[in-house]
Amino acid sequence: MSSFTPTSAESIRDPQAKRRAQLRVFLGYAAGVGKTFRMLEEAQHLKRQGKDIVVGYFEPHGRKDTIAKTVGLEMIPPKAINYRGVTFKEMHADAIIRRNPAICAVDELAHTNVPGSERAKRWEDVQVLLDSGIDVITNMNIQHLESLNDHIFNITGVRVRETVPDWFVKCATEVVMVDATTGALLNRLKRGDIYAPEKAQQAMENFFKESTLAALRELALRQTAHELECREITEMPELAGELSTTSPRQEKQEKEVRDRILIYVTADPSTAMLIRRGRRMADYLRADCFAVCVSSHHGGRRSVTQDIEGIQKHLNFARNLHIESRILEGHDPAETIVDFAHRNEVTQILVGRPKKRSLLSRLLGTDLVLRIVRKARDIRVIIVAERRRSQVQS
Predict the structure, then answer these.
(1) Burial tier of 286 (Cβ tally within 10 Å: 0-12, 13-18, 19+)
(2) Largest CA distance in the chain
(3) Of the candidates 294, 313, 312, which has an alpha carbon nearest to the alpha carbon of residue 303?
(4) Is the pLDDT at 363 greater than 50, yes or no?
(5) d(Cα 267, Cα 287) in Å, to the nearest integer?
(6) 184, pLDDT greater than 50
(7) Helices H, strands E: what count in the chain?
(8) Cβ distance 55 to 70 under 8 Å?
(9) In this model, does residue 234 exceed pLDDT 80?
């Protein structure tokens, strides 16, 4: 088991700031590795220490060993929500806040709430608990991390629909990887410890192939190691405090050489993949990141150069990933994008490869991607093509 323990940037900047509630995430790579079991084990440990802890939501999945771990823990009853004649049970955030425990255990962080719920996602419910001063311990799988969505699709053939923004996980006080070998996990599956026999067989033919599990496990281990490395790099100068000998001039130089990434936003569906790629690159490079589209004026009327609804959806998606989003004014998209990039010291521009690029447009020099490349000069332009394979909904 490995973990990383980031420190809130706000608390570093302001030691007198009010204590922020703490978030602890148990991260796995597949169902059945023991995330919920480990979370409840931690809840029992905290209770023995005299902590005021409740279980805000628990999904048993018929797993007897996991259910046994809830014995003696206070359970907050879920909220019943009727949707299309069917009653669903969701975490009752308001009831938890009224109870006001010190700590709350919440199962399945990436869960999407049923329509009619106060918030769309369970991680948003957890954010409300944290804002209310309640510490939270929770769990999720690596495939639910938003920036990895395309990578997971390439590994599994499954397009994961329930995701958690990277920034939310990075706010955690601690992320603990709950690990199990692929062999041990497959043995649990065959014994019926994870799913009922009929579902287990289907799982082994699809998501629970050994090669797929091995790739997911490696990804989870790499992600945890990367976060640990980032935290060590980030925290060491801060911990040095007054011992730091960095001069203002050196700090300015370091800021000037930092990578800055620009993502060109269009209405094309592949833009979501481009945004996730840019977010992940920015995290790895510790770079600033912009998501930018171009709007123009025709006959005195303002019009976005592509479909407005599609672009707005992508800009909102970028904002959800904490990417600064801009709508630029200009008649020439290529010139407008590159001008913004130069003025903002952008080092890399990400653009999607159009599905259809005519030979004539390339010969006449009207191809947008080629024009961006030619105008960018010293800025690196990365052209990203969407990888295609049969898609399974999840």
Answers:
(1) exposed
(2) 74
(3) 294
(4) no
(5) 25
(6) yes
(7) 16, 17
(8) yes
(9) no
| CATH code for the domain in which residue 259 is found | 3.40.50.620
pLDDT grade for 205, boundaries at 50, 70 and 90: confident
pLDDT at 299 over 80: no
pLDDT category at 364 given cuts 50, 70, 90 is very low
Residue-level length of the chain: 394
- Separation CA 287–CA 279 (nearest Å): 9
Burial status of residue 312 (CB atoms within 10 A of its CB: 0-12, 13-18, 19 or more): middle
- 388 in helix, strand or coil? coil
Q: What number is the average pLDDT over the span 158-182?
A: 93
**Six-digit token pair at 168?**
């939310």
Instruction: Measure CA 166 to chain center.
Output: 3
One-letter amino acid at 336 equals T
Secondary structure of residue 264 in the 3-state scheme: strand
Range of the domain at 311: 249-393
* Residue 199 sits in the same domain as residue 86: yes
Angle between helices 271-285 and 308-320 (to 10 degrees): 30
Confidence (pLDDT) at 37: 97
d(CA 94, CA 111): 18
Same domain, 179 and 274: no
Per-residue pLDDT of 116-144, as tens digits, reads 999 999 999 999 999 999 999 999 999 99
Q: Which of 147-156, 196-205, 377-386 has the lowest mean pLDDT?
A: 196-205
Cα–Cα distance list, 271 to 111, 262, 313, 331 (Å): 24, 13, 10, 21
What is the total count of domains within the chain? 2
Contacts of the segment 311-317: beta carbons below 8 A, 24+ positions apart? 311/265, 311/266, 311/267, 314/265, 314/266, 314/267, 314/271, 314/272, 314/275, 315/265, 315/291, 317/272, 317/275
